[in-house]
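Dock S-adenosylmethionine; give full complex structure.
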Amino acid sequence: MKDWTHGYVADVSYDYSFFPELAPINIVFNLLDKSFFPPSLEKFTYCELGCGQGFTTNILAATHPQAEFWGVDFNPTHAAEAQRLAQAAQLKNIHFCDQSFAEFLQADTPKFDYITLHGVYSWIGDENRRIIVELLQQKLKCGGAVYLSYNTLPGWSAVMPLRDLMVQYTGGSGDSTVQRVEKGLAFAKQLQEVKARYFRENPTVKYDLEEMQEDSRNYLAHEYFSRHWQPLYHSEVVQQLVDAKLTFTTSADIDDQFHNLKLNEEQLNLLAGITDSTLRETIRDFMFNSRFRRDLFVKGPIKLTTLEQVELLSNCRFALVVLPEEIEYEIELIGRPIKLDETIYQPLVAALADRPQTLRELMRQPSLTKLDFAAILQALKILITTYSVVPALSEAQEEQRKQAVAGLNAAILKRARFGEDTQILASPITGGGIDISRSEQLFLLAHMRQVDPVQFIWNILQVQGEKLIKDGKVLDSPEENQAELRIQAQRFADLRLPLLGRLGLV
Ligand SMILES: C[S@@+](CC[C@H](N)C(=O)[O-])C[C@H]1O[C@@H](n2cnc3c(N)ncnc32)[C@H](O)[C@@H]1O
């Protein structure tokens, strides 16, 4: 029988997550920030390759009803799960294909403005990497952007043998992948306990093994147990993508630009002396011993003039995704404590707590007029790195977005009743997902149905044989559970509901 998996793990589904870096608004903001002309956010085509269960693509399709989305994943269970949610949400602008990259290459599709691949490129063999490059070459529009994440060298060099060990030890066992994960972890621990020299001479591997013990088994199966697992140097990836006429532009992770603050003068001077930009970026990975990169490439990048950049960034809107009282003014940035200047940050947060605003609108705020464009932008970026603020979509067509998002959120909330824990709802304001726990989802559902939240949630918990836990202790009696639910319901109504309202979820 032909093996459609190409050695990729297929007997266990991948975790169900939303990745904000894949959102068009995030790609656009990062490109603008580095002065590159971005693809359109108005009418566009978007494709996620290796989309897993398609949760990110579904969220993006709901928050961009004017655009067309494709999700490709050869695992039929992934594609079926992705389609199930899209159908429940009545999304009309999404196409999930249970095709391999090779089959999708032959498929009749339009060209795309955005192509994204998260957690794919290092986990497939050379042949599939070549197919992806061909896909990018054939299916990306000129001016289109590619988000590509991959495991990076040199950060993985010490841990690669640990992965090889677990895969080889469990290889011929005929066990399921999850069983192989357990056996592989247990054997690695045994080897560490008998003080194998590999562990002694690579002391950091111990921490990796400890972390792996905590990770979800589905995640570990996909992360480490595919036949192919190839961390790559940035320079190798850049070289491979030359054939697709792609140019590296910047990281999709805004934190990345703050990392240079970690470098001392000698290190910065050493980097500055390297004239080749690809080599410089690769050597920067040596400075940080980078393990994972989220790179943005563009086919035919166009540099903006400073005036154009300022104009386009001024039109970007930003939304506060936490309560103002949750903002911490003493934060850790790249592992160092810093104190945010409250005379700058408090009025900025207060303005955004009122409503999402463009940078231009923020500059007109009386409380912020003493700050210039660069200072406000820098403060916004810091708030983005602390997950307090996100770039948001423009106000135009917000009503249309609200309708599409309502269908998807209703489908997700319905699942929360059955115990499925997606922890994310879509926001028509941010164009992405908002973190929201299962219990908050149930409070929101009760609010939307205009029923007593305590009775509503208690009925669901009872049917599922669940009880609340308070201060580490299981609440036994119905009275204790209901009293705790009453407190939580009040907290939700006072604090979370107004925030969810501002983010367009109610
Ligand atoms: C590690 S998962 C990442 C899923 C998703 N992008 C995420 O980050 O949540 C990699 C995905 O790529 C898919 N995949 C691997 N090789 C493929 C191929 N040759 N053609 C299509 N899909 C493939 C797998 O089924 C899997 O869902």
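Observed: The CA atoms of residues 308 and 397 lie 24 Å apart.
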